[in-house]
Amino acid sequence: MVGGGITGLAAALRLRDRLPAGTEITVYEQSGALGGKLRTGSLAGTTVEFGAEAFLTRDPAGGDSAAVALARRVGLADALVHPAIGRAALAIGGELRPMPPGTLVGVPGDLAAVAAVARPAAERDTDEGRPLVGPDEDPTVGELVRRRLGDEVLNRLVDPMLGGVYAGRADELSLTATMPGLARAARTEPTLTGAVRAALAAAPRPAGTPVFATVDGGVSRLVTAAAEAARAEIRLNAAVRELLPVPGGWRLVIGPTRDPELVEVDAVVLALPARPAARLLGGVDVAVGALVGRLDYASVALVSLALPGPPAGAAASDGGVLPASGGAAVLTVGGGVLPAVGGGVLPADLSGFLVPATEGTLVKAATFFTSKWAHLRRPDGTLMLRASVGRHGEEHLLQRADDELVSAVHRELSGLLGAELPEPVDSHLQRWGGALPQYAPGHLDRVAAARAALRTAHPTLVLAGAGYDGVGIPVCVRSGETAAEEIIKVLGVSRT
Predict the structure, then answer these.
(1) Contact 346, 383 (CB under 8 A)
(2) Which of 199, 253, 339, 487 lies at a 20 to 30 A Cα distance from 19?
């Protein structure tokens, strides 16, 4: 395994489960820690996530997601916890407006349900007697939504949702890669709202089933447990600099140029982001490396703040934070005025909010950890919140000193919430350079072509990870497990 993120670890575990006892499995990780974008840390003495926060509980077919299945496999089923609340908002024009229900990544199936947030161009979404998208078409999400429902739906609903997931813009992201369910429905349905309804019906969720889960104690527990269960040799600070085919397998060139280590192996799962993977593939197949290397990435930063709870004697409730002035703040939500919690600035029933790019803020999303997750709430009322900053093409906005970026986020959050937040008792800035893939139209075809070429010429070299199959912990786990199954099939050995 080249890459010690959750993809590589899931692949290693599947190989361990399926290959004969005694098989040597090695994970090479360039950095000093496993887990990739899964990183748990501490803020003011509370365990919080500095990377991926949670994962979907269901797969597209309606069963357990690959992440939930992995948690069960490694003994963490009892550690899975679900959000106490899941109500999110949109920050529009100085107000927090509730996220409309019944959308698919912001695309509405019922235009009346989104009227309080955006004015759909309903007259455009007419039945023209043919499917919205042809069998070989892969428009951008923005192209399709703008054409059928207009700018406001795209800018106020869809774009912020995609910005939260991918740090990308709807006008640049592939429909097929980012919204596969909608893409399938759009190839049979004549209207966009009809396609949304069909896609939602094709992936039903039983009533009462939670959408998301995380691990009590942090998602890094999933990383550690998977690594232990795989019983692989873990090589940290071990950069693989070259990958070369040799008779019967592969030669890895590891470590510094002056004193490299040469290792020969039977098969390789390349579980790296696209650009470093492309560099290694350059020594194997230049055309495949070029296909893989076309993928661009967005950089983001996550600013976590611990804000003091209300002073002794003040009314308080879960998630409440008093403004520095001690005055009673209110929030305008969906046209109605809500008293802030405990005289503070956060409504008790909100887990966070998204900010459309058209609002012109650095902050694109915020999560109220201690409101969203009951297991993180503290007796002293300290609020943990995290803001996400950075969109594709805006990397220059992140190029400022750490303290300046934290201060800017604190200042913007105060403005977005309509009241001055108190000074944090602790803060943390996590920068993720080149973190989120930007799937341009045709992405899945390029990945299929690259994999097909490798399968024909180099079947013991397999690609896996978010750079190919999608973002999110379940997708990465499934990608790693699928890559392992390919290796097992090619080697022709297994326990069964």
Answers:
(1) yes
(2) 253
